[in-house]
Known about the structure:
Blueprint: H1 3-85, H2 90-110, E1 113-115, E2 127-134, E3 143-148, E4 151-153, E5 156-159, E6 161-167, E7 176-178
Parallel strand pairs: 2-6
Antiparallel strand pairs: 1-4, 2-7, 3-6, 4-5
Amino acid sequence: MTENEKLNEMVENKPETVEEDLIEKLTKEKEQLTKYLKQLKAEFENFKKDTLRDREMILKNANEYLLTKLIPVLDDLERAFNAVEQGATFEDFYKGMKLIYKKLWKLLNNEGFFKIEVGQKFDPFEHEAVERIETKEKEEYDVLEVVENGYKYHSKVLKPAKVKVAVKPSRGDNGAQTV
């Protein structure tokens, strides 16, 4: 084989060699990326499990904290019932229940739980109108009666106060209309 023939053969074979090198290089990159993605997926799954476990632990600790605070109230109730069994009067029992009730509310207030105070005007964010009463004696949307108390935890309403609300008479007479 002459030199020219050898050169021609090398030039002709070179594109195949280059393609094989490129394919080999890309295959290695693909394998590395696949391995990296599998590692990232495994890390993300572990992160999700850790986050869920942490969340459950926080909830469990919060429940434990509140239950620990309620134990003295349970102890007081038990003492009150025992006192009745040992002959305490109704008045003494009633006074004891009022003290326990106040103690419970103080504990709940300290934790951010409050009864919604109902003012004169209807507040759609804290009240639920269960009945509209037509009247000329009150201003429109005045609260006439609290049917059930409402409660909120910090600023979040857990249960709106159920109220009866005054509305202007539609026909000129005083009649009740249910919502």
